[in-house]
Amino acid sequence: MSSTDQPFDSKKENPATDTSEKLEINEPEIVESDIEQPEDLAVLLKNAEAQVAQYYEELLRAKAEVENVRRRAQEDVAKARKFGTESFAESLVPVKDSLEAALAQADQTAEAWRAGVEATLKQLVGAFERNLLKEVAPEPGDKFDPHVHQAISSIPSEQAEGAVVQTLQKGYTIAERVLRPALVTVSSGQPAQ
């Protein structure tokens, strides 16, 4: 290869070139368009203030909605208390009508009177069932349950200790909640010999 075929290298031609190390400092070039102008700051401030005003309005709306929900819930609870017995009262009105009709009959035989009372009792039992009102009437020998029974006394008996000996008064539950506990006597165990 001849010297004319080789590419020209300036370093070979000028051996007196500076070979000392040069440090490169990478500083970003500051372009005049990157510097925010005062009118840009004013626009940014105005936009931020508008966004804050929007958030404040949304906050006020949310607070008002929460207050409305709370107020509606209170009204619903008040209505439920006021009209909660409406269904039960509707069930009892025919029972009252039957009792009044029985009292209005002057000339009744004992059998007719009894039949009327039994029919009225059936109406009352039906009203109780529709409104989830159930009797609590433990049989002798049933286990005493303090959740639905109230022990009046404890007596020695042939029943096991803690068993119901006698039901003095029926109790009632309404929708699984005790309205009135059954009054019972409870066995204290075998009598002493």
Strand order of the largest sheet: 1-4-5
CATH class of the domain at 132-193: Mainly Beta
> Structural class, judged by helices and strands?
alpha+beta
At the fourth level of CATH, the homologous superfamily of the domain at 132-193 is Head domain of nucleotide exchange factor GrpE
CATH topology of the domain at 132-193: Nucleotide Exchange Factor Grpe, Chain A, domain 2
The dominant shape is elongated
Mean pLDDT: 85
CATH architecture of the domain at 132-193: Roll
Q: Give the terminus-to-terminus CA distance.
A: 137 Å
Count of DSSP strands: 6
The whole-angstrom Rg is: 47 Å
Number of helices: 4
H and E order? HHHHEEEEEE
Sequence stretches where pLDDT stays below 50 over 5 or more residues: none
Task: Outline the biggest β-sheet.
Answer: 3 strands, antiparallel
The fraction of residues assigned to DSSP E strands is: 15-25%
User: What is the helix content?
Assistant: 40-55%
Tell me what you see in this structure.
- The protein is α+β, with helices and mostly antiparallel strands.
- Among the domains are: 38-83; 132-193, Roll (Nucleotide Exchange Factor Grpe, Chain A, domain 2).
- 47% of the residues lie in helices and 16% in strands.
- The protein is built from 4 helices and 6 strands, in the order H-H-H-H-E-E-E-E-E-E.
- It has helices at residues 10-13, 38-83, 86-104, 110-130; strands spanning 133-136, 149-155, 164-169, 171-174, 177-180, 182-187.
- A 3-stranded antiparallel sheet has the order 1-4-5. The protein has a 3-stranded mixed sheet with strand order 2-6-3, with no helix packed on it.
- Strand 4 (171-174) and strand 5 (177-180) form a beta hairpin.
- Helix 3 packs antiparallel against helix 4.
- The longest helix is centred in the N-terminal third of the chain and has 46 residues, at 38-83.
- The termini are far apart.
- The relative contact order is 0.07.
